[in-house]
Amino acid sequence: MPLVRVDALRATGERLDALGRAVHDALVETIGIPPDDRFQILTGHDGTSSTLRFDNYLGVHRDEGIVYVAITMRAGRTTAQKQALYRRIAELAQEYAGTEPRNVFVTLTENESADWSLGNGVAQYVL
Question: Name one Pfam family in it (predicted).
């Protein structure tokens, strides 16, 4: 059950939707999450009252097409699965939203089953 946050600079609702679909489809394809397991926070920043900051760290030239993707999910995926996920998010962000792969910044945070309540004040993953 990943929780996904996508932040994009000057993104329309259509672009945010496309980016959300790109991340979700990549999660389904690469790590096998169920298709109906979609929990996302999609936020566009106007560059004035809210904005995103970036530089050219590690030789990756980013510009105002920047998209930050933060994924929180339960631990257990291999390094190879994570690498496939990052690659597929970048590919689908380009295909669905026209975002250049160099502008797709992904971070993945893992936690344990007891760290989730999916509603009703219950930790559903705790056996």
Answer: Tautomerase_2
